[in-house]
Amino acid sequence: MPKITFSYFPLRGARGEAIRFALHVAGADWENADMTWDQYQAKKASEKDLAWHNGMPVMIVDGKAYTQSLAQLRFAGKLSKLYPEDPVAAMAVDEAMDVCQDILTKCPQDPDAGVKKTKREEYAAGKMKSMMDLLAQRVGESGSAFMVGGDLTIADLVVYFLVKMIREGQFEHVPANYVDAWPQLAGLEKAVPEHPLVKAYYEKFPVSA
Ligand SMILES: N[C@@H](CCC(=O)N[C@@H](CS)C(=O)NCC(=O)O)C(=O)O
Q1: What pLDDT was estimated at residue 148?
Q2: Peptide bond preceding 57 in cis form (omega within 30 of 0)
Q3: Residue 1 pLDDT > 70
Q4: What is the best residue among 6, 15, 44 to mutate for testing ligand 1's pocket, by most ligand atoms within 8 Å of CB?
Q5: Are the C-beta atoms of residues 6 and 34 closer than 8 Å to each other?
Q6: Which domains can be identified in the chain, with CATH numbers?
Q7: Can you tell me the mean pLDDT for 156-160?
């Protein structure tokens, strides 16, 4: 069993929490080493290893640092059996996670507040909507409340935390109730915290703690 140190910001969502959850489910030998925004910026300023320069989270496995949240989540998903061994099911999981990553990274920015608002509204009605349509289609095809097959995978966690970010207003100019247009995604949002593994995790590590 590798020795793992996981660093993210002290947030119970976004790009980090799915990885913590999967490491916990795996019973991995890991420690959480959250950093504040300022600690991370200071680390970047002094650190030569470029794996630390690509944004958080960063995972250290047996002394070596790795970047990219989805690579880390796939690794934790393999340890926890929350990433399917079947290649086609694994591709379906990857597809959903990459669509979520696109939704996050393609979200327009602009230094001008008015232009940013217009661009974001266009995004929510256009490209982002079509990616949400695809995620909802996949839930419909799975025959369950989950993205792939009949049980929880790491794809569900990524979709769940993306939906949570929208709900919490972290997508500026995208309404908090945006997700309600897709009953399949609103259904997944309900099903994930009710899954026995997720329930047990939140009982052990309550969000307010
Ligand atoms: N492609 C990266 C993106 C990471 C990323 O942008 N992380 C954000 C937080 S969710 C961050 O650390 N931003 C601050 C910075 O890059 O200095 C991944 O998925 O790991």
Answers
A1: 98
A2: yes
A3: yes
A4: 15
A5: no
A6: 3-80 (3.40.30.10), 87-195 (1.20.1050.10)
A7: 98
